[in-house]
Design a protein that fits this description.
The protein has 486 residues and is an all-alpha fold. It contains 23 helices and no strands. This is Sporulation protein.
Length: 486
């Protein structure tokens, strides 16, 4: 960082229009994900996210560090740093630029090309994905199925484009000379509702890529602003709607095993919340970030993100929201092996839940009821290695969901998969296999990499018991499904 005196003698940053043009119609989060994928192709690891892309486009980073340079030149072969809109390295790192250290505008975000995993911060870090990218063959198979066709048609009915980059470009150009109106803001809000509804019924796989197009449109509308007739209320709705849409798309990425993409989308939502001063959106973004951090094997970050969510939510008047956030914190403590911290957070979650629903509960929390409370508690005890206790809570979650919220098919499958895993680890293979068969029966309707990964783990755990009749049936059906979907 430069001193105030040196900064005052430096001209303000000049936007990097060349780099912005190369991003095209992709959102900053999508472009950041592409950068991380390109880095992996050449053996680099960079922590690119939407905030970093924004800093480059704003001209705050006049020249990237060496790791980013190698990645950008790999992404755009035949171009130089100057072609990408950056200043020559000598201009920002040479003797003439500054006597000691990096010059203003040089990329010092990640010195020595290392990843800083400290938390909290305003942007995400690159994470190691727990599984391979979803198979193109499998994705195509799902997208041609009847369930997916209905889902995509439902999403397209809200009035936002599903045609990908080209369609989003058309929308962006259409709004270049005019502001968004209330109807379009309403369409963004409806897209959020539709995505959540479709995810509840069908799971994330197959929806993720299609849902990214409405997200691009939402941010195109943000770029255009809102009409004067709409006033501040419509502008606030647009910011909130775009942020919630980013979280919804991030969840689809999260549930389908695309952790890097999910982190970037959640980071976009958090940045939108900070820019618009929206504590409800900020609490939601941190809440999901905590869940993602737990799943990605960063339990300490999960605890701190949940605590940040609680701070953002403390004046929102929703005990149920604070209860869910406490469960996110409990999951982090469980991942750290801290039983006392986990129990304390679980006690707080139950006490807040028992206060009951409130008119101020966020719309997105419709999934959070007794079944989800039991399901998340089961995951905590499972992480702590208390399999019998975990299986009791998972059994309750699956039973309550089937009777009280049968429309949440994806959650019923998730709780039952959790039950199968806990029973297998508790040494009850016949019961685990029976639960696994119930999950398999739901997978024609539900597509979720998370659930299928859990089921695959259960199958491995049951292999030593494969001669038992019920276990044999489950293993054969699971293997047959794996052959069809790969």
């Amino acid at each position: 960082m430069t001193s105030s005196s040196s900064a005052s003698s430096t001209p303000p940053p000049r936007p990097n229009l060349a780099f912005r043009e190369l991003r095209g119609q992709r959102s900053p989060g999508e472009f950041a994900a592409a950068v991380r994928r390109a880095a992996r192709e050449i053996g680099e690891r960079v922590s690119c996210d939407a905030r970093y892309v924004g800093r480059v486009e704003a001209g705050e980073i006049r020249c990237p560090n060496y790791a980013y340079e190698r990645v950008f030149l790999h992404m755009f072969p035949g171009r130089t740093l100057t072609d990408l809109g950056f200043a020559p390295r000598a201009a920002v790192r040479g003797r003439g630029a500054r006597g000691a250290g990096d010059a203003r505008g040089a990329d010092t975000t990640y010195p020595h090309d290392r990843v800083d995993t400290r938390y909290p911060r305003d942007h995400g870090t690159d994470s190691t994905t727990t599984g391979d990218e979803e198979s193109d063959v499998r994705r195509r198979a799902f997208m041609t199925s009847g369930t997916a066709t209905v889902a995509v048609a439902s999403l397209g009915a809200v009035g936002l484009p599903l045609g990908g980059v080209a369609e989003a470009a058309r929308v962006r150009e259409a709004h270049r000379l005019r502001a968004a109106d209330e109807n379009e803001v309403s369409a963004v809000e409806e897209a959020v509702r539709q995505i959540r509804l479709l995810d509840d019924r069908h799971g994330a796989d197959g929806l993720y890529k299609r849902a990214a197009a409405p997200l691009r449109t939402a941010y195109a509308l943000l770029d255009a602003g809102t009409s004067r007739q709409g006033g501040q209320a419509v502008a606030d709705r647009l910011y909130s709607g775009a942020g919630e849409l980013a979280i919804s798309v991030g969840w689809l990425a999260h549930d389908s095993g695309r952790f890097d993409d999910a982190r970037s989308h959640y980071g976009e939502a958090l940045a939108t919340a900070r820019m618009s001063g929206d504590p409800a959106l900020e609490a939601h973004a941190f809440c999901n970030t905590a869940f993602l951090a737990r799943d990605a094997g960063r339990p300490r970050e999960a605890v701190r993100a949940a605590q940040a969510a609680a701070r953002a939510a403390r004046h929102l008047g929703s005990p149920r929201l604070l209860s869910l956030i406490a469960l996110r914190e409990a999951g982090g403590w469980a991942g750290l092996g801290d039983r006392a911290g986990c129990r304390q957070a679980l006690t707080r979650a139950h006490a807040l839940f028992d206060i009951g629903p409130s008119e101020t509960d966020p719309e997105w929390m419709t999934f959070y009821g007794p079944a989800e409370l039991a399901g998340l508690e089961a995951q905590c005890w499972s992480a702590l290695g208390h399999w019998e206790r975990a299986s009791r809570h998972a059994q309750r979650a699956a039973g309550v969901a089937a009777t009280q919220t049968p429309e949440f098919t994806r959650n019923i499958a998730l709780y039952t998969a959790e039950l199968a895993d806990d029973l297998a680890r508790a040494g009850r293979p016949d019961e685990a296999a029976a639960a696994g068969l119930r999950v398999l029966a739901l997978l024609d309707e539900v597509q979720s990499s998370r659930i299928e990964s859990m089921l695959a783990t259960t199958a491995r755990l049951l292999l030593p018991h494969r001669r038992a009749a019920g276990v044999t049936d489950f293993l054969e059906q699971h293997a047959a499904r794996a052959r069809v979907t790969t």
